[in-house]
């Protein structure tokens, strides 16, 4: 997983292959995190939410 090399610390983005995961950038590293049970990452909100609210779309850009 990449995309954090020149991104500010604390920026979150969707995981490229899994709606239940997200990425936090920290010192240029991409740290993969899991959403809570049954939740998806919402790129527009930058947090995990219920799937019907998250709108996870693996074909679109995950940065917000």
Automatic annotation (TrEMBL):
UniProt entry tagged with the keyword Disulfide bond: yes
GO molecular function: chitin binding
Pfam families linked to this entry: CBM_14 (PF01607)
Annotated ranges, domain Chitin-binding type-2: 1-58
Membrane-spanning ranges: none
Coiled coil: none
Signal peptide: none
The organism's place on the tree of life at top rank: Eukaryota
PROSITE patterns (UniProt xref): CHIT_BIND_II (PS50940)
Matching InterPro entries: Chitin-bd_dom, Chitin-bd_dom_sf, Chitin_bind-dev_reg
Gene3D superfamilies assigned to the protein according to its UniProt record, in alphabetical order: Chitin binding domain
GO cellular component: extracellular region
Keywords tagged on the record: Chitin-binding, Disulfide bond, Glycoprotein, Repeat, Signal
SMART domains associated with the record: ChtBD2
Protein name: Chitin-binding type-2 domain-containing protein
Organism: Capitella teleta
């Amino acid at each position: 997983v990449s995309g954090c090399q020149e991104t500010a610390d604390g920026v979150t983005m969707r995981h490229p292959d899994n709606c239940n995961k997200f990425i936090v950038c920290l010192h240029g590293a991409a740290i993969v995190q899991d959403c809570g049970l049954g939740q998806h990452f919402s790129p527009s909100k930058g947090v995990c939410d219920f799937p019907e609210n998250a709108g996870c779309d693996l074909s679109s850009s995950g940065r917000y």
